[in-house]
Design a protein that fits this description.
- The chain has 207 residues and is α/β, with parallel strands linked by helices.
- The protein is built from six helices and eleven strands.
- It is globular, with a radius of gyration of 16 Å.
- 43% of the residues are buried.
Length: 207
């Protein structure tokens, strides 16, 4: 049975945030709100947790997860960021964007797109997940909480609890979530490219 934490969306309770971070360190799978949608996540080295997330969402083995990072410094540790891309990232983070970049050697091979050697990363702008990332001290492997057959992500914490209370370790209730995913921007070429239009405004990149 999952633990259910109601965490304040503007002033997250430190005690609860620390419990979420501890759960992630111990191999748990957690549901949490972001500035886009609710998401499922686990620690970077938690292969069993990733397998559980795939099972919950019925994802293929090749599904590309996103790394949620605390800040640009973290992002720069897990991806190769050329100077022009860094300037663009600085304008758009934190925010509802996912950036496709060449993965660094710190990223486990199972998370890297095998042909292009890329990884999706983002710096969220939501006080709860920002607090969790800060206390946890490392990126979280993340994917949007959209259940099989559903057209939109789950956004009501009550529905999330009913659907997943026997599947995950902690459900963080941060109020109603959004229905729009992040905008995905590919920064691996000289010119940025929009891979998916979502909540983030691509005009920040001149697109």
């Amino acid at each position: 049975m999952a633990q259910y934490f109601s965490i304040h969306s503007e002033n997250p309770q430190k005690r609860l945030v620390e419990q979420v971070a501890s759960c992630l360190r111990q191999g748990g799978v957690v549901v949490y709100p972001t500035d886009a949608c609710y998401a499922l996540g686990c620690s970077l080295d938690n292969k069993r947790g990733m397998d559980k997330i795939r099972r919950i969402r019925k994802l293929q083995e090749q599904h590309e997860f996103t790394l949620l990072c605390r800040d640009l410094s973290d992002l720069g540790s897990y991806a190769q960021v050329p100077n022009p891309s860094y300037r663009l990232l600085k304008q758009a983070t934190p925010g509802p964007f996912t950036f496709v970049l060449e993965a660094s050697k710190l990223v486990p091979k199972r998370l890297v797109q095998p042909k292009r050697r890329t990884i999706g990363l983002r710096v969220p702008d939501h006080q709860i997940i920002k607090a969790i990332l800060e206390v946890f001290g490392a990126p979280i492997v993340s994917t949007t909480l959209t259940l099989p057959g559903d057209p939109y992500p789950l956004n009501d914490p009550t529905d999330i609890r009913l659907s997943l209370e026997h599947e995950v370790d902690i459900i963080v209730d941060g109020g109603y979530g959004g229905l729009d995913p992040t905008t995905v921007i590919d920064l691996t070429d000289q010119a940025p490219e929009v891979i998916r239009r979502g909540l983030g405004d691509p005009t920040l990149f001149g697109l």
